[in-house]
Amino acid sequence: MLTFSGKKATWYRFLLKFKNLRDSTGILIGKGSKIVNGTKIGDGSCINGKIVIKGRGDCTIGKYCAMGDDIRIITSNHKVDDVVLQYALLKKIGLVAKVDSRNDVHIGHNVWIGDRAIILPGVTIGNNSIIAAGAIVTKDVSDYAVMAGSPAKLIKYRFSEEEMKAQDQLHWWDWSLEEMKEKAHLLQR
Known about the structure:
By secondary structure, the chain is an alpha/beta fold. The chain has helices at 6-16, 87-92, 161-170, 177-182, and strands spanning 2-4, 21-22, 28-29, 34-35, 39-41, 46-47, 51-54, 59-61, 66-67, 71-74, 76-78, 99-102, 105-107, 112-113, 118-119, 124-125, 130-131, 136-137, 145-148, 153-157.
């Protein structure tokens, strides 16, 4: 797991200005990505382009997720009942900006998120789900759901109920690479 916190986060952000970031667990984060402190990315997850993760909440991305280019994940909102909405102006006039809500975002294991998807504050995306390119996710997503549109709506489930129950027993993302190789026949239809 790669955690964005402290001096390591500063170093990661510096590296991402110039090149892709890879680690020994197979994590890949695309060049140009902007990721706030409090973000955790699970082993083997690949962000195949630029991602922006912003806000005051935390973001957790599970293991072996596949993510496209130009994805945005937002973990907090402006306080909408204040008169002034711009934080920079509030600071200039001596007021403290208040965040309306700090809403963590949780993305499960083996999730595919397409290019230009937007994940809004407080959303949990279940394991084995798919978020279509350009989708705007405003609500929680069930395991195995295929979601598309603005706002994202359920298109279908990836497998039958029986198949989902069988897959749920595997938890293959916790296996070693050797175990995945030995049981590869279970991982492809």
